[in-house]
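Please decode residue identities from the backbone states below.
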């Protein structure tokens, strides 16, 4: 195993352990039964929660605080939101695993996880699968926060445009998954729970357009387009060029207008001109669409600062356009360096630091 491979392996193990430690804390706090009640039919739980008066009050409160929610200053309702999203993310990390509940209650998961994934990480293919789970779980956390707050409709059939899409796993298998935790019971006199089974069900969008200009994805995108995925279009071009061509492409495919624009942990340099970017988006959507953009740590502090500045620029543009964007900041710290070192979830290499959500209105961004 070379040095780079070993470093990445240790990071993946640390990332797993950090998130699973959070899961253990949540289960200890609330008890397994409450978690099972929320996750045996999670879509129903989200639907009932999204319509509560507390959610409306929470979002109105955020609007009064310059449209910002921060994990550094949480109400009980927001704590529940982030805990729910974290358990959801762990359903991807533990997908198709059966876990003895006593391990989750007694700090026994670290050894369990290490024994499960350590043997796989000497194999590049298996290591890639673990890496995909870690990245998908982060996308899942983003989606579940927005669903919990009632901003993303769990019943909606999405017609999705994803830029900075990478392999596309996060944008499909991460963002559109429904988590589930089910008990497996013994047949003894007490009918006790023997293990907890973790699942994720992917809810296929109506269609997805994936855009990424990195040539490393060229072969994979060609493969996606050549396979029988009539609901996926993968474009390995610069986003500006791709979006210029997309109106005709969508029309030729008889695809309805886009209703979800997704950019997960974007590179700030891909949107040099915010106004022009949204004028292009306006040609692809109907009367309205959901916009979700998030940022990660970047490879350096300068890149992190660039991402923070870009998301603020987008936020200010949307406000100036008389829309109601919402920023969800998931870090602590005052300086940019402190913020980058203190994400609310996970390791800086794999986690989201800020989410921007906005319900776009075509007439507001088309000028």
């Amino acid at each position: 195993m070379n040095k780079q491979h070993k470093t990445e392996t240790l990071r993946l193990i640390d990332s797993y352990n950090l998130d699973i430690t959070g899961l253990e804390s949540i289960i200890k706090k609330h008890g397994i039964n409450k978690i099972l009640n929320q996750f045996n039919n999670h879509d129903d739980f989200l639907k009932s929660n999204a319509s509560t008066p507390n959610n409306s009050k929470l979002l109105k409160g955020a609007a009064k605080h310059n449209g910002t929610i921060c994990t550094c200053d949480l109400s009980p309702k927001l704590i529940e939101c982030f805990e729910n999203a974290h358990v959801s993310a762990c359903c991807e990390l533990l997908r198709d695993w059966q876990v003895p509940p006593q391990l989750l209650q007694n700090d026994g998961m670290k050894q369990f996880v290490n024994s499960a994934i350590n043997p796989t990480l000497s194999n590049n293919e298996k290591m890639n699968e673990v890496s995909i789970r870690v990245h998908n779980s982060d996308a899942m956390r983003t989606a579940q926060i927005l669903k919990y707050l009632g901003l993303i409709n769990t019943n909606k059939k999405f017609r999705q445009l994803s830029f900075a899409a990478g392999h596309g796993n996060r944008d499909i298998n991460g963002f559109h998954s429904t988590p589930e935790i089910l008990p497996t019971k013994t047949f003894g006199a007490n009918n006790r729970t023997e293990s907890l089974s973790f699942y994720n069900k992917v809810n296929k969008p109506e269609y997805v357009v994936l855009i990424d200009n990195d040539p490393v994805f060229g072969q994979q995108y060609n493969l996606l387009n050549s396979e029988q995925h009539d609901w996926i279009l993968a474009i390995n071009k610069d986003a500006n060029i791709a979006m210029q061509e997309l109106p005709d492409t969508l029309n030729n495919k008889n695809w309805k207008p886009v209703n979800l624009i997704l950019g997960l942990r974007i590179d700030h340099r891909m949107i040099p001109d915010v106004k022009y970017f949204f004028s292009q988006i306006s040609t692809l959507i109907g009367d309205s669409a959901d916009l979700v953009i998030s940022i990660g740590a970047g490879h350096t502090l300068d890149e992190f600062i660039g991402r923070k500045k870009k998301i603020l620029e987008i936020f200010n543009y949307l406000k100036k356009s008389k829309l109601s964007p919402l920023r969800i900041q998931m870090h602590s710290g005052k300086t940019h360096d402190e913020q980058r070192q203190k994400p609310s979830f996970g390791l800086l290499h794999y986690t989201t630091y800020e989410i921007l959500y906005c319900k776009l209105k075509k007439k507001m961004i088309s000028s």
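Observation: The first helix runs from residue 3 to 30.
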